[in-house]
Write a structure and sequence with these properties.
Blueprint lengths: L10 H5 L15 H14 L18 H12 L12 H13 L11 E4 L1 H13 L5 E6 L4 H8 L3 E6 L10 H7 L4 E7 L11 H14 L2 E5 L26 E6 L12 E4 L3 H14 L5 H12 L3 H21 L5 E4 L6 E6 L1 H7 L4 H10 L5 E2 L10 E5 L4 H16 L10
Helix pairs in contact: 3-10, 4-10, 5-6, 5-9, 11-14
Bound molecules: pyridoxal-5'-phosphate (PLP).
The site of pyridoxal-5'-phosphate has 13 residues, from α5.
């Protein structure tokens, strides 16, 4: 390390041995990011790519939201805003979660506007966890949840989900994972990566468990509006079994309103401890979300829900295209998602042998070389090496063509190119 003469190293810092890894050294940049970069580079060279690796809605932001952003900019609403969110948005979000999510009694002061749900996770775990605190999470789970727990000094404890349970948490397995160090149970419905929905009975059982054992629940509901068929979203904080004071709910404008780049999410909490701590973390990380994005979010949450329904219908088409393409292939077991925009596919060894790949990770790399994006199962936890996730958030034509190309690879019709070791 270079030090200036004005700040010579102290004797103590010279002697300090790195006893513990830095928390950031435990966080990866992730396989999905690598695959995305590879596909973007291929696209830049004019190659055909199918962006089935990451979950970014293809849709444009609704016109009334854009108008609100434009009007706010022209009205000079471009200065610092209150740390916890603009009051109008907090009021509107409190009304939304009471009406739509059944979170009774929530007021504007229980809402914290964050830089997307990602930042909400960072903030909630940062405010809640002491070093070594355990948080129970599903395995598989979108990686960033475990990473944010680690960043806060916590320990993610995975509970394996299985196809036999439709990838819903098993309350018995969750109970078995509780130790003296458990601080919270993390719940995500609809679920990334499987598209599973947690039934009301499961949520009630988890709420009861958390209440009886004095645990917090952190409920990530980023995909609350992305549902298929007769699937319904239930917010765990609305259930009579839940200790509402100890349920923290997280939402996002990224998926429901296709506002991923505008970075608006929010936390709902009725706990005095978090009312005290969250504003401090918000002040020291963002000091308020981008003012224009917040005015846009206000228009989104108070405006028509028709654009949401139209997007949902289009996602349902994409889901069916992808599911249809992957049906009836030996060694390929897709799970029909009931929400979100991901298709989780379990794979058999027989498929690897037939295609000449080592495992799902190798298959994902080989697909990327064919321009087909995917996320290998082991990016989501320890229990899912023989699985792969495809996102259907890119546009419908790309999903149609990508599904067909994928089918050709998995049936062996398109041979995989030999890869560098
Ligand atoms: C389960 C889950 N939670 C939260 C997020 C974060 O969304 P954002 O930060 O865009 O609001 C994502 C994004 O993929 C997600 O899958």
């Amino acid at each position: 390390m270079r030090v200036s003469a004005a700040h010579p190293p102290s004797a103590a810092s010279e002697q300090r041995a790195p006893a513990e890894p830095h928390p950031l050294d435990l966080v990866s940049l992730g396989k999905i990011v690598q695959i995305r970069e590879q596909l973007l580079a291929a696209a830049a060279q004019g190659k055909k790519v199918y962006r089935l690796e990451s979950g970014d809605p293809s849709f444009a932001v609704a016109p009334h939201v854009l108008d609100a952003i434009d009007a706010a900019a022209r009205a000079g609403k471009t200065h610092y805003v209150p740390n916890d969110g603009i009051p109008q948005l907090r009021e509107a979000l409190a009304a939304k979660v009471r009406r739509q999510n059944g979170l009774q009694g929530v007021t504007a002061s229980d809402i914290y506007v964050t830089n997307g749900a990602m930042h909400a996770l960072y903030t909630v775990f940062g405010a809640l966890l002491e070093p070594g605190d355990e948080v129970i999470i599903p395995d598989p789970m979108w990686t960033e949840v475990a990473e944010n727990i680690r960043l806060a000094g916590g320990v993610p404890v995975g509970v394996t989900l299985s196809a036999a349970d439709d990838f819903a948490y098993s309350p018995e397995l969750v109970a078995a994972a509780i130790t003296a160090r458990t601080r919270a149970i993390f719940v995500n419905t609809p679920h990334n990566p499987t598209g599973a929905i947690l039934p009301r009975e499961t949520l009630a059982a988890i709420a009861t468990l958390a209440r009886d054992r004095g645990l917090w629940i952190v409920s990530d509901e980023a995909y609350e509006d992305l549902l298929f068929g007769d699937a319904a979203h239930v917010s765990i904080g609305s259930l009579p079994e839940a200790d509402a004071e100890h349920v923290v709910s997280i939402y996002s404008f990224s998926k429901s309103h296709a506002m991923s780049g505008l970075r608006v999410g929010y936390i709902v909490t009725r706990a005095a401890l978090l009312h005290d701590r969250i504003p401090k973390l918000l002040r020291c990380t963002i000091n308020g979300v981008n003012s224009l994005a917040q005015w846009g979010a206000l228009a989104a949450v108070t405006g028509s829900r028709e654009p949401l329904a139209a997007m949902r219908a289009e996602y349902a088409k994409r889901r069916d295209l992808l599911l249809g393409a992957l049906g009836g292939i030996d060694g390929v077991r897709p799970f029909a998602p009931r929400g979100a925009f991901y298709l989780w596919v379990e794979l058999d060894q027989s498929l690897y042998a037939r295609l000449g790949v080592e495992d799902a990770d190798d298959l994902s790399r080989a697909l990327a070389e064919q321009g087909i994006g995917s996320a290998p199962g082991d990016a989501f936890g320890r229990s899912c090496n023989d699985a792969i996730r495809f996102a259907f958030s890119c546009d419908t034509e790309m999903v149609r063509e990508g599904s067909a190309a994928l089918r050709r690879v998995l049936t062996g019709e398109t041979p995989l190119a030999p890869r560098a070791a």
